Amino acid sequence: MSAIDLTKKLVNFNTVSRDSNLPLIDYVATYLDDFGIKSHRVESPDGKKSNLYASIGPEEPGGVVLSGHTDVVPTDGQDWHTDPFMPEIKDGNLLGRGTCDMKGFIGTALSLVPEMNSLEKPIHFALSYDEEIGCKGAPSMIAEIVDKLPPPQAVIVGEPTGMKAITGHKGMVTLKTAVQGHEAHSSQIHRGVSAVMTAATLVTKLNAMTQELAAATDTATGFEPHHSTIHVGIIRGGTAINIISRRCEFQWDIRCIPADDPKIILDEFEKFCRDEILPNMKSIDPQCSIDTQITASAPSFLMADSPALSLLTALGVQPAKSHAPYVAEAGQFQSSGLPTVICGPGFIDQAHKPNEFIALDQLNQGEQLLRSVIQRLTRS
Ligand SMILES: [Zn+2]
User: Cys-Cys with 346: which of 17, 76, 160, 206 at CB 3.0–4.6 Å?
Assistant: First the structure.
């Protein structure tokens, strides 16, 4: 099957992160099995999703891991002109959810399996779930790869980079803060503690902290923006205009450059809550509380020099001028001691949006690169 056809096939599976990816994983396992390739699953704790990894070629060190996530972001509320899960080619582009991020890369890699028949060093596939909701799936698979496979020379994370080699991305911690106040009539603000108003103070504090990080960070970090950021994405609270709200929750993230430690940022926030906010709240009702939980985290990535980068540059890939604006699984591979680089077809600007697409030319360049990786690992 061609790279385009296999990409289309993968896009047909609706693998939005909230749903199961098992039909896609079954499909890939069967596809590999037809070539006599055994694959291994590493399932989510509830068994509804799975990673899959597989090795082709001799069981030897020095192979290359091709890594991709199988989940995609939702299409809800987006203005699509085509069915997002029925990909179509229009004006030299393949349209559909996940074509760019990142089933184009996975489909291309899988389509080249028939050409991986005389490998001297192995090629490993590493397909994950739940990347889009905090890189939650990959760690259990990476642990198994490190444990069970001979050490590879390179991990190529095929996120869309326009086929440039990217050697850095920010880390991310996602959090949920729940504020518990004390209900009263809205005319009696001296008798209640508003969870909504308290949350607003905390959000303002987080905003100020981002401004401080921006001012304190050297502008030449290679990241855009150059500093670590804090952003609140969801806030919910209150029941009526005239009730001082008892509960308010907000969800936020810290995206850290490698030089910053998210724990220090979180500690500053916790200290502010403890010292500046909670005493006043508790003077009205000792039950009042502010509780912050980490819901997901992924480490930052920075590998300016590695065998993974050398492999790609030897094959003619240009290093990118800046680091990735997004968080990916590269930091998790790096944390496990694996030489890693991000390089894949398509551009991130075309991902996550309605009418997501990948240019066929990009898909083609991805295919050329993977073909030269295969050649390099093949007996001459
Ligand atoms: Zn992605």
Answer: 160
Cα separation, 100 vs 326, in Å, equals 14
The answer to whether 290 and 177 have CB atoms below 8 angstroms apart is yes
Distance 69 CA to ligand 1 centre (A): 7
The class level of CATH for 172-297 reads alpha beta
**DSSP bridge pairs for 68:** 127
Compute CA 80 distance to the chain's CA centroid, rounded to the nearest angstrom: 23
CATH code of 3-168+300-376, in short, is: 3.40.630.10
Q: How far apart are the first and last CA of the chain?
A: 25
Compute, in angstroms, the gap from residue 197 CA to the centroid of ligand 1. 36
Domain coordinates of the chain in residue numbers? 3-168+300-376, 172-297
* pLDDT tens, residue by residue, 116-160: 999 999 999 999 999 999 999 999 999 999 999 999 999 999 999
Spatial distance between the Cα atoms of 200 and 197, rounded to a whole number of angstroms: 5
Whole-number Å distance between alpha carbons of 375 and 355: 35
Going from the Cα of 289 to the center of ligand 1, the distance in angstroms, rounded, reads 37
Cα(212) to ligand 1 centroid in Å equals 30
pTM tops 0.85? yes
